[in-house]
């Protein structure tokens, strides 16, 4: 168990299973990036994805936030991923860690965790979130397969949030396509080289996700 898991369990106590109903339809599609302490992997993923979205044609249609299964609220992003983000985007990350809660789960149309253990924790606490909870690598892998066969799910002219919601629902019905999806390892307390490796893995997945969005945003010819 990580330092965050141990400290947060002592502070927060044990979690009883909670129910989180799917979010109501909104003008934008909300994605939650989740890891353990919400200062390394999920923080970097959310900050990077938000920066990519804000500079794309999808700005205003997709939103992202992050949280941790055992987060210490208010902690800033770890210096290593923070420095990587600043190098890549020329700006300081704006991030404070937060604990995943019933309210946050209810706000997300899609929950992307970094490793299988985190998915187990999320689903034990919020079992109704199963259809919209995936490993990041799992979701990207499944959607690449599905997007290749159905370039634009939903009716022609449908807004991107509706199309992404339909793609996510289809992904939940085809989980076997992502059965071999790997975890993204926790870089906390590792050296700079390991943080660079993990950030590269996350960025690669996010770039693929952006390509998937491009694919499903196109109306069939």
How would you portray this structure in words?
Residues 1-20 have low confidence and may be disordered. The protein is globular and about 40 Å long. The protein contains 8 helices and 4 strands. It has a single domain, classed as 3-Layer(aba) Sandwich (Rossmann fold), CATH 3.40.50.2300. The chain is of the alpha/beta class. It has helices at residues 3-12, 41-54, 79-89, 102-107, 116-125, 136-149, 160-172, 192-217, and strands spanning 29-35, 62-68, 110-113, 133-135. A 4-stranded parallel beta sheet has the order 2-1-3-4, sandwiched between helices. β3 (110-113), α5 and β4 form a beta-alpha-beta unit. Residues 29-212 form the Phosphotyrosine protein phosphatase I domain. It holds the Pfam family LMWPc. GO terms for molecular function: protein tyrosine phosphatase activity.
Per CATH, the class reads: Alpha Beta
Shape: globular
Distance between the termini: 51 Å
Q: What is the name of the CATH architecture?
A: 3-Layer(aba) Sandwich
InterPro entries: LMW_PTPase (IPR050438), Ptyr_pPase (IPR023485), Ptyr_pPase_sf (IPR036196)
Pfam families: LMWPc
Organism: Propionibacterium cyclohexanicum
Protein name: Protein-tyrosine phosphatase
């Amino acid at each position: 168990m990580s330092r965050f898991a141990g400290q947060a369990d002592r502070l927060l106590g044990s979690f009883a299973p909670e129910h989180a109903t799917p979010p109501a339809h909104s003008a934008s599609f909300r994605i939650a990036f989740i890891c353990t302490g919400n200062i390394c992997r999920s923080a970097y993923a959310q900050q990077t994805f938000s920066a990519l979205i804000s500079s794309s044609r999808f700005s205003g249609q997709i939103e992202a936030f992050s949280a941790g299964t055992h987060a210490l609220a208010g902690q800033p992003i770890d210096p290593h991923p923070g420095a990587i983000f600043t190098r890549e985007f020329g700006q300081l990350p704006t991030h404070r860690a937060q604990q995943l809660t019933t309210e946050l789960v209810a706000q997300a149309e899609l929950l992307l965790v970094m490793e299988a253990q985190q998915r187990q924790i999320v689903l034990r606490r919020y079992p109704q979130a199963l259809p919209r909870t995936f490993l990041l690598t799992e979701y990207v892998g499944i959607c690449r397969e599905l997007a290749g066969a159905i370039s634009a799910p939903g009716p022609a002219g449908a807004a991107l949030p509706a199309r992404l919601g339909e793609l996510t629902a289809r992904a939940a019905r085809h989980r076997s396509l992502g059965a071999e999806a790997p975890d993204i390892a926790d870089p906390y307390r590792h050296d700079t080289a390991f943080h660079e490796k993990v950030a590269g893995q996350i960025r690669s997945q996010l770039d693929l996700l952006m390509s998937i969005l491009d694919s499903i945003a196109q109306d069939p010819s």
